[in-house]
Design goal:
alpha+beta, D-amino Acid Aminotransferase, Chain A, domain 2, nine-stranded mixed beta sheet, six-stranded antiparallel beta sheet, globular
């Protein structure tokens, strides 16, 4: 099945879909978004993603014109249009359609857009590399907004250097990656940055912490710096679509890769969690 699109209730092939030029997502990036994998036509962690979208919308003073249950139903309708069950489902909510002006337009209804595309899940045993870059994003990184230009530029620089990700920092404090969350393992403890305004509250991050708690691995939520990153026993990069990736090369130097047992434990936990949550009855 081809990739599919949706805009305010209308379904179609993705490349055939259009939206109004005056949608505020077009000229301001004025909206929020979410994305998650599907397997066997089951949307993974749908409740967490929908809750985070409502939280992001509230922080931008966008009021969704629907309930959480209505949105989940629409997402499932979208997913059921696909023949194959392994996909990435993306959706966004913009403030609405109006002539360009900085203040919020009055009496407009937010626009809902979705895209679903086939996806091949990553091999979590393939290790990755990263570069470090200064974090030039704004101070509302806890909101999953459409404004991603600094992240795009960082990701492109990583790609040009043959790397999987760019790890960002502000004056030496590690924040997150261009499109992922980054954590370190040191002396048997997981250290992860607190979810303040510099960090998106990652859903894959929550699953990693859940895995640590289930396996007796201490979790410390605190800021950490570039020196700690480079000297960590392990560097983990997490996201909803890549689950947990092990980074063993940083700025073209060896890094991490020194706690095989805990890596395997946590990798298996997050992957098996996904598999269990997206299993279906055989007679479906």
């Amino acid at each position: 099945m081809q990739a599919l699109g949706y805009y305010n209730g209308k379904f179609g092939f993705l490349d055939d879909m259009t939206l109004p030029i005056t949608d505020r997502a077009v000229y301001y990036g004025d909206g929020v978004y979410e994305a998650t994998p599907t397997r066997n036509h089951v949307i993974y962690a749908i409740d967490q993603h929908v809750d985070r979208m409502f939280s992001s919308a509230s922080l931008l003073k966008i009021e969704p014109p629907f309930t959480r249950d209505w949105l989940k139903n629409e997402l499932n309708l979208m997913m059921e249009q696909m023949d194959g069950g392994d996909n990435v489902l993306y959706w966004q909510l913009s403030r609405g359609t109006a002539r360009r002006a900085h203040p919020f337009p009055e009496n407009v209804k937010p626009n809902l857009m979705m895209m679903i595309t086939p996806y091949r899940f990553p091999n979590l045993d393939e290790y990755v590399s990263a570069i470090t870059l200064e974090d030039t994003r704004f101070l509302h990184c806890n909101i999953k907004t459409l404004n991603l230009i600094p992240s795009i530029m960082a990701m492109q620089q990583a790609k040009e250097q043959g790397c999987y990700e760019a790890v960002l920092h502000r004056n030496g404090r590690v924040t997150e990656c261009s499109k992922s969350t980054v954590h370190i393992l040191k002396d048997g403890c997981l250290i992860t940055a607190p979810t303040d305004n510099l960090i998106l509250p990652g859903i894959a991050r929550s699953h990693l912490i859940e895995g640590c708690n289930a396996n007796g691995i201490e979790v410390i939520e605190r800021p950490y710096n570039l020196g700690e990153l480079k000297n960590a026993d392990e560097i983990f990069i997490t996201s909803s679509t890549s689950f947990l990736r092990r980074c063993v090369r940083l700025d073209d130097m060896e890094a991490g890769g020194r706690d095989e047992a805990r890596f395997q434990t946590l990798k298996n936990y997050v992957w098996n969690r996904f598999i269990a949550a997206t299993e279906v009855e055989k007679d479906r």
